[in-house]
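cache lookup: miss for this entity combination. No prior model stored, computing from scratch. Input as submitted by user K.M.:
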Amino acid sequence: MGEEQIIFYFFAASVLISALFVVVMKNLVRSIFLFFVTLFSLAALYLFALADFIALAQVVIYAGGVLVLMLFAFMLSNRELLNSLKPVASGFKVNHFAGIFISLLFLFILFAVIIKTDFNQFDWMEERVPINASDNTTHQIGIQTMTTYLLPFEILSVFLMMALIGAAHLARKGGKT
Amino acid sequence: MIPIAHFMLISAGLFCIGLYAVLTRRNAIQVLIGIEFMINAAVLNFVAFGKYDKIAGGGQMFALFAIVLAAAGVAVALAIILNVYKYFKSIDPTKTDTLKD
């Protein structure tokens, strides 16, 4: 087992464990700050798939934008939770058991499918050219955005503008509706 | 060289954690975090397969698109959560049931 494997599995374990804690934690502040750890470890995993630009975008967009938004929404919506942590009804509800059951079942199905699949047998896997670690993927992403994927890019920019205007409209203070 | 199946196993685990959060959490922000986990699991798969696609670069491009779409979704969802809190004084999705018949 080389250094690459050790670092990869360290970050993989960090993603899964911190994600699990984010989900089961009762305290929302801790849960949101642990979400940071998950997102950064996930960005490290993207680096192992030789997607350095995606990893950078993940850090900038998620850790820089989404996390701050979530903290703001939390602070604006949970006044009473910040003052005194009210006791949460302990014990599992039926809802919990159904949720755990469905998630575990889904996990089992996905694992079974992935383990049974031999990825080397597909001919589309063989005829593709893999990315080398020395390739400049940022350069290629820039070229492809303006050539092959120009239409999705334009649709995405219009959609992003619509979503942000809509969000600003919804969050406006003292609106008529 | 990490085999692609290991990327997919990690993303399957992350997806199921997100699914559990969406199904059982009693707080709209944590439900939103669950949805983010599911989106990130999909992005991890995109990126892992994009490693084998140097010419077209589809995996990395659409991973980028998915990240941007998720960010837009979060902005709208948090605006909705703030409005829900204004009306119901709670962001528990089980308590906002006035639309129920």
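stored under new cache key. The helical segments of chain B are 4-24, 28-50, 58-88.
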